[in-house]
Amino acid sequence: MSGNPDSTPLVRLPSRLRGIRWRGAVSVIAFFALWHFAVIVEFSGFAELPTPIQTLTAFFADYIANPDYWSSWVVSFERVFYGFIIAQILGIPLGLLFGTSPKFRDLFFPVFELLRPIPPLAWVPISILFWPTNESSIVFITFVGAFFVIVINIYDGVGSIKNEHIWLARSLGASRMSIFRRIMLPSVIPSIAVGMTLGIAITWNVVIAAEMIASDSGLGRMTWEGYVSSTPEVVLIGMISIGLAGYLSSLIVDWVERRMMPWTETG
Amino acid sequence: MSNTATDINQTTEQTGVGHLSVQHVGKVYDPGGANVVALDDCSLEIPAGEFIAVVGPSGCGKSTLLNIMAGFDSLTSGSVLLDDEPLATLNGSLQPGPDRVVVFQNGALFPWKTVLQNVVYGLLVQKQMSEQAANEKGMDLLARTGNLDRIAHSYPGQLSSGMQRRVEILRALINNPKILLLDEPFRAMDTVSKTTMHRHLLDIYDQYHKTVFFITHDLDEAIFLADTVVVMTTRPGTIKLRLDVDLPRPRTRETVLSERFLELKQQAVSAVHEEAKKAFERGERELA
Amino acid sequence: MWVGYFVTIFAWYACVKWLPVSAFQRLPDPLTVVIEWFNPDPDYGLSFFTRDYYLHIWYSTYRATTSFVLAVVLGVPLGILMGWRVKVNEYASALLSILRPIPPLAWVPVAILIFPGSEPAVIFVTFLVAFFATTMNTLLGVKSIDSDYFRAAECLGAKPGDILRDVIIPGALPSIFTGLQIAMGAAWFSLVAGEMIAAQYGLGFMILESYNLVQYPTIVIMMVTLGIVGYASSAVIRLVGNRLMRWRAQSIGLAAA
After folding, report:
1. Is the ipTM of this complex over 0.90?
2. Interchain contact, C163 vs A25, CB within 8 Å
3. Does A9 touch chain C (CB under 8 A)?
4. Looking at the complex, does the CB of residue A46 fall below 8 Å from at least one CB of chain C?
5. Which domains are seen in chain A, by residue range?
6. What gap in Å lies between CA B23 and CA B45, rounded to an integer?
7. In this structure, how many other beta carbons lie within 10 angstroms of the beta carbon of residue A26?
8. Fewest CB atoms within 10 Å of the CB: A223, B85, C106, C166?
9. Per-residue pLDDT tens for B175-228?
């Protein structure tokens, strides 16, 4: 019994075929079994919930074929998408600005840092006041969520660019613009990637909550309405759908990142 | 309670302890799959108190051999005996222990403990003595070895790598091990620091005469420090050449310039070069 | 630095008061906010001088702290075990990777159903966020410890208990504390949402409530308060971490010298 942690790789290559991972399966099955059991036994609040099987049947019966359900998906995805993209469009330049211009950083970074700890959802009322449509106010909140993460990551990324690269370029006679375009931008691509991965998770969280609080459409709204109308299957189906949607988004982001950084592909 | 641990002040000649016998040791990784033969029929006799240096091209298995001796890895054939007691056999290996302490390539002093805490760590964790007694013993050893007691309360991060290595050697030594295993300990150091470290290591060896198993890729270092230099072949690793280094002790700066040193070096260089070429060519072929 | 603040606040004021864009004109302006905040008898009932202000801060802080402590107490040991023993990792990671993509706030309705009352539900959801962050970072921390340290400890005679105490915990501590800061931030994020959706009292609740009651300056007061409290809690964690990891500060200090 050695004290050394066994050297399992932290990142599992998806293509690598592994033996049946029965331990993982055991926990997952145990989880669902416990859930089922708790409902049957009517353990405190579980009395209100459907069992895993009931949830599944309800999903296949009423939801898979229901266009309203899928339009909720589309609506939520749209919000995530717009907020996320706008956050990139505004965030990357700002991060670059912070990273490359000491004057700008000294002036405005403190303001940025002051606003950063404010949770995105705290912006909801201001956003509703400010933006003309409900939709735009939700997209704004989504934007806020991803924006700060992206800026910080870019800023960090600029800071970690190897000085040697820049000095080399200068000694070879490159102009500032050239250095910016050909060294800095490519060097911050990994930070953009990290910002994207973190940002997408936050964005989903924010969208769901914003929908629950202040909207009439989308997966978050659907889940909340399930609660309000005392149809708990909807709540669970909503939750699972959101989880799936979030997972799907992170897969998409992963794919984009791999395209952005082909050199990280290992053979 | 300490069992057979003799006092560190008794030299190995007095105790005769630390005779290592490597018998036909082989190590195969992933026998059912890639079948990488790291070691193939290595045999080596290391008498008690001898300083033995192992050189060879990268990937020749020197570290694998050390890991097997230390107990970090198991062998797939052969056996290793320490003072005629089995250390590693097909039936299993002994767990790593204070009778064969290792000094690591990149240094493994605990950064979160002070120098003194590091040095006495083995004593405390084996519950050999009270903390106070251990600290006294630690300070004593530090003081005796180049007045290192003045850094007793510094953290490793505040020290140069040379100092760190010295402390690490002391951390190993204080446990009165039967053998000292050093895995390219000075590899990452510049030439000047290295020369200083050689001096320190030889001082310790001259004083305590432990059996030392020293891995390096630096031939000069190997011949300068050791009684025996062993050259290993490239993968699968086996013993290619065994050189008796009959240079007088204590070794001095002049030793490196003596004729005998150069003769020995010539023998070693041609052997190593041959193996290095093979390894290099194989590397190219593996990529092609 | 102050220039930046000043410029921003001035721009805010200018936009609200002078820009003929109705969107901006609906917003509260900085002057009104400040006056209200420091008003011993505020128009809308909340300022530095009112008891209710501190009541809301207390509620939010209490919830955040409880969830956070729970997350640490459960998450750190789990993370350590997962990093140390492959078997534990195998049991746990499948389940965690299924649960993790679900945005914590999606749990709110389910939590309200399961738990008796909205208070435990909000704390649960906040706990969940902090828990995942803590566990993952602890796991990462343990995995990132150089295996030479383990080997060194072993050959010096350390038993697994010693290794846990002398290698794993100190080695993983930097990552753990990074995780704790992230967890704290995530907890506040989640808490505010939870409070908006399903609670009485608290900063998040108050923000939404002020909107509903058309008390707009209060919104900003609460937002800024949130920012300050959130920042302070992260700072506390950072300070505790620095104290526990004094050896790092000293090493870094030397490198910079």
Report:
1. no
2. no
3. no
4. yes
5. 70-259 (1.10.3720.10)
6. 8
7. 14
8. B85
9. 999 999 999 999 888 888 898 899 999 999 988 889 999 999 888 999 999 999
